[in-house]
Amino acid sequence: SGPHVLTSSATSTGALATLLARRPARRVNWGLDRMKFMLDALGNPEADLEAIHVAGTNGKGSVVVTADSILRAAGMHTGRYTSPHLVGFSERIVIDGHPAESDLLESCARDVLLLANEVDATFFEATTALAFEVFGRSGVTTAVVEVGLGGRLDATNVLNASVAVVTSIANDHAEYLGTDLVAIAREKAGIIQTARTAVIGPVGGEAGEVLGKLAGESAERVLRFGDDMSVGNVESGPDGTSFTYRCGKSRGPLRLRTPLHGTHQATNAAIAVAATDAFTGGALDDVHIQRGVGAVRWPGRFQVERREDGTWVYDIAHNPAAAGALANVLGQFDLPEPIVLLASVLGDKDWTAVLAPLMDAVEAAVFTVAPSSPSDRRWDASAAREALDRSAVIEVVPDFDRALATARARAGAGTVVVTGSCHTVGDALRRNDSA
């Protein structure tokens, strides 16, 4: 029937603000018809993208930013799409390493808003269409795109990506994906359907078997962490994580350093290297990889800030697997003591499982409520305190500003670890001006 024609133009200012404010972030309406309608009307900007598409329970953001950094180090003009943001919406849509300019976002949002209204698109569908339109108007043909939720029916799965990545499989978003790891693996494998190469992280058990089988049926080539690529001699220090990367006979041994902290970040970086190597057909120089991996900046992922009032650590760990990784890094890192936890977890998360490993890594904790968290998803901090064995060293301070001050006072010259959700970290970064 041909592309949809925009019959009117949004002339009022603040189209982006309107687009974002009117759409509940948590509304999920499965299916790709609305995305296809909007993108057809926009002239299908996604069709011009050669993309690396990244799904996974944890690690996908780190893989996306590392892959983007490697491609830019090789001289490519790139777009990057991630979610959620910590401080400002423009963090989600990045051109050549810089957030998209506000005038461009606003101009694109005017057209997207009309279409989103017409089909009642969800928040994430609208912002995904916005990202692809921004890429199109910026002349971007190389993109690294993060899946929002799941994979098969995620709004980003309109891409014909040449490389598809699944970083990990664990329980999260149970209200949408369930708790069956095999079913979750099937959903995430849905992004592999058009890819030439599939890159799979350290996914074991039956979920790993199913993921490998589905990848083999769709992709021409499958690279699995531990089988086809690996890391060794991992060393973690104040300047990040160093490791040796190998990928069969085609690449390595190559010594790399990522500024991101934790042994899990060596794995994430290796996945990104494998993905970009496949994306470029092995055309990357070692120096491109080394520079790209070494130049990554990804706020809110064990971000350490040493300020006059003491040390702050920000990490968005919001599920048990991510919290366990954070606890491990806290144990490896030489942080000033005492270490005090400042936590606010969303109410629909398994906050007992999230907090338990962290309580073993700190001396005290302050539970609070992040002001930017959706009102219908706020947790009961007092109930969380009572449910944990170490409730005697936990203080509940609902007011976020008071909680920050309380945690800082309890830590003294030591360290405050802010975690639990993107809302918690973003709110703290804004108040501490550390974004």
Describe the structure.
- It is a single chain.
- About 40% of the residues lie in helices and about 20% in strands.
- The strands form three sheets. An eight-stranded mixed β-sheet has the order 4-3-2-5-1-6-7-8, with helices on both faces. The chain has a six-stranded mixed β-sheet with strand order 12-13-17-14-15-16, sandwiched between helices. It has a three-stranded antiparallel β-sheet with strand order 9-10-11.
- The radius of gyration is 21 Å and the shape is globular.
- It has about 425 residues and is of the alpha/beta class.
- The longest helix has 18 residues, at about 100-120.
- Strand 9 and strand 10 form a beta hairpin.
- Helix 1 packs across helix 4, helix 2 packs across helix 4 and helix 3 crosses helix 10.
- The termini are far apart.
- The protein has helices at about 15-20, 35-40, 60-75, 100-120, 125-135, 175, 180-190, 205-220, 265-280, 285-295, 320-330, 350-360, 380-385, 400-410, 420-430; strands spanning about 50-55, 80, 95, 100, 140-145, 165, 195-200, 220-225, 230-235, 240-245, 250-260, 305, 310-315, 340-345, 365, 395, 415-420.
